């Protein structure tokens, strides 16, 4: 049997057009995402016993925690936390939908690259060049030698928050208002 010369694969032919390729990609995404709720989000109903026995009553709902006056309801103004990829403003308003979730992930991944790859690598290089294998001694030295010299652009934080470097833990922190 001889191979058919000049026979065109219709899928390859259709995907040569950028418009058709986008349409096929969108159809694939919608098909993979689905339209219904997840199986985990559906409420479960208890199945009655088959032998006619009475099922035990459901457990009572957990009691609400009682707030005490000793625990503050807001963070103190000088509280600081380690900066994560979820802290910057850019990309926070996206997510949850079939169109907006990729936008959220795009910004989240860019922030993770900065905080989990670029800054730690720059710190390792700085420590390797230091004769005592120490990190920067101050916030100013960190911003100059780690951030500025390596061309790292820190993402914008929510209003009132600011970056600072903790020399003891050698971590970039976010100071809350």
Query: Number of helical runs?
Result: 4
Share of helix, binned:
25-40%
Low-confidence stretches: 66-77
Strand order of the largest sheet: 1-3-2
Number of strands: 3
Distance between the termini: 78 Å
- Using the alpha-carbon principal axes, give the shape: flat
Main β-sheet: number of strands, strand sense, barrel status?
Answer: 3 strands, antiparallel
Mean pLDDT: 75
- Our estimate of the beta-strand percent is 5-15%
Order of helices and strands: HHEHHEE
Specify the structural class: mainly alpha
Q: Output the radius of gyration.
A: 27 Å
Write the layout of secondary structure elements.
Layout: H1 10-14, H2 18-33, E1 80-82, H3 100-129, H4 139-148, E2 162-166, E3 171-175
Antiparallel strand pairs: 1-3, 2-3
Q: How would you portray this structure in words?
A:
By secondary structure, this protein is mainly alpha-helical. Among the domains are: 25 residues; 96 residues, no CATH class. Helix content is 34%, strand content 7%. It is built from four helices and three strands, in the order H-H-E-H-H-E-E. A three-stranded antiparallel sheet has the order 1-3-2. Strand 2 and strand 3 form a beta hairpin. It is flat and about 65 Å long. About 7% of the residues have low confidence.
Quick overview:
The protein is mostly helical and 177 residues long. The protein contains 4 helices and 3 strands, in the order ααβααββ.
Key terms:
177 residues, mainly alpha, 3-stranded antiparallel beta sheet, 4 helices, 34% helix
